[in-house]
Design goal:
This protein is mostly helical and 415 residues long. The longest helix has 60 residues, at 68-127. The chain has helices at residues 2-31, 35-64, 68-127, 134-145, 159-163, 174-209, 212-216, 221-230, 234-261, 270-281, 285-296, 300-305, 307-317, 331-339, 350-364, 371-380, 404-407; strands at 148-149, 157-158, 340-349, 385-388, 391-399.
Length: 415
């Protein structure tokens, strides 16, 4: 389960890094006067964003190795890269939100104008007198103009021809033209009503295409709702939302990998410790001693750099709950039992102790570990050291008297 969660965490952190890099590139590209300048700014923004995700690991490594100058430089670099990335992300989020809100405001304004126009047209249509369809009125008008008329002393003709379209009338033709004038009025009303009706149908089609944001009449519904709930100004709420989005992306991209990788022990030498414990559990003394010696001979500088590894080493080497019958003691425990005794007020130099340990390993047929891990194992056994008279001495212990096998040897250095 831990590895599954870690895998999902890596995917999520990678997604945030990509999103942050894209946002920073887009904002940096917009700073350039020309396309080439924009590409330069964008590339610098992406590089800063990627470096931001790596800097935490570099700072921790420099801190554990006590490289204070490098750690301080890493902190400064991280602050600069993170600051630039955050400002770029805020700029991108602010610009994008302003553009979207502007487009929504235009759609909302258009929607309101169309609503007002629709209401005006519907009211105008309701005020118009009752009328027939324009086609029916036009047919009636045509029929009235073609009506035959017989005047005294003149040949038979139509009303339109006789009156020149009712522009020339007399007392006899007025009764015919009166009807034509009414039909023309009705036709004008019918045509105007038809235009209004067509415009109403067009507006309603546009309403069907309108978004819910336009229909609601709010350019930024999210900010408007939050402002209503907390009693804030709309502008303040929008600013907070922009900062929240930017910080989410930047914090996730900067610390995502650092947090996820903390779940995994990336030290391959931890497998050696595990093998050593397995070997001791199967009562394979020789295999256990070989694996522990291999672990002890690893790069000594790494031991001083990794506290987690020291804890693993302490667990593998000094398991206080070990069954003395089923799980034999490891090499360091046996050396402690055979050669060291606790005596209050006594002390032994580091050189004496390490030389005696090397001689003891020769008699056991094993390879001694180097002096740095040897000292660390003594510290894990609660053996304290101090510098006395210019020499490192371990307090509260002394070496046991040597037996005949040791007395025969003369190649131990004199401290």
């Amino acid at each position: 389960m831990r590895h599954v969660l870690g895998l999902f965490g890596v995917i999520a952190a990678s997604a945030l890094v990509i999103v942050s890099a894209a946002m920073n590139w887009r904002f940096g590209f917009g700073l350039g006067k020309t396309e080439f300048d924009g590409q330069v700014y964008g590339l610098a923004s992406v590089a800063a964003d990627c470096l931001k995700a790596i800097v935490p690991f570099l700072i921790i490594y420099a801190w554990k190795t006590r490289k204070w100058a490098q750690a301080l430089a890493g902190v400064a670099l991280g602050v600069i890269c993170t600051g630039y990335s955050v400002t770029s992300s805020i700029g991108f989020a602010a610009t994008n939100r302003a553009d979207n809100n502007g487009e929504r405001m235009i759609r909302v304004a258009n929607y309101k104008d169309q609503r007002a126009e629709l209401k005006r047209l519907e009211e105008k249509l309701s005020w118009m007198p009752k009328h027939r369809p324009a086609e029916a009125v036009a047919a009636s008008l045509e029929q009235a103009n073609a009506q035959p008329v017989k005047l005294r002393g003149k040949p038979s003709s139509t009303v339109e021809a006789l009156t020149d379209g009712c522009t020339k009338t007399n007392w006899t033709s007025r009764k015919y033209c009166a009807n034509i004038f009414d039909l023309r009025k009705e036709l004008a009303i019918s045509e105007e009503a038809a235009k209004i009706d067509a415009r109403i149908r067009e507006i309603r089609k546009e309403f069907a295409k309108a978004t819910s944001v336009a229909a609601a009449g709010k350019a930024d519904p999210q900010a408007d709702l939050i402002s209503t709930i907390f009693g804030l100004k709309l502008e303040d709420t929008q600013t907070v939302l922009i900062l929240l989005v930017s910080l989410l992306v930047e914090a996730g991209s900067a610390l995502g990998y650092f947090v996820v990788f903390s779940m995994w022990k990336l030290d391959p030498r931890a497998a050696i410790v595990k093998e050593a414990e397995t070997a001791r559990g199967s009562r394979d003394r020789k295999s256990s001693r070989t694996l522990e010696s291999t672990y002890a001979r690893e790069d000594d500088s790494f031991l001083s750099d990794n506290d987690n590894l020291n804890e693993l080493m302490a667990t593998a080497a000094n398991d206080e709950e070990r069954d003395p019958i089923l799980l034999p003691k490891n090499e360091m425990d046996r050396f402690y039992d055979e050669r060291i005794e606790r005596v209050e007020g006594e002390s032994t130099t580091a050189t004496q102790l390490y030389d005696d340990y090397c001689e003891w390993c020769k008699n056991q047929g094993s390879n001694p570990m180097s002096q740095i891990p040897f000292g660390k194992q003594l510290s894990q056994m609660d053996i304290n050291k101090a510098k006395i008279a210019g020499r490192i001495r371990y307090k509260g212990i002394r070496l046991r008297p040597r037996n005949s096998d040791y007395a025969k040897r003369s190649d131990i250095r004199v401290a």
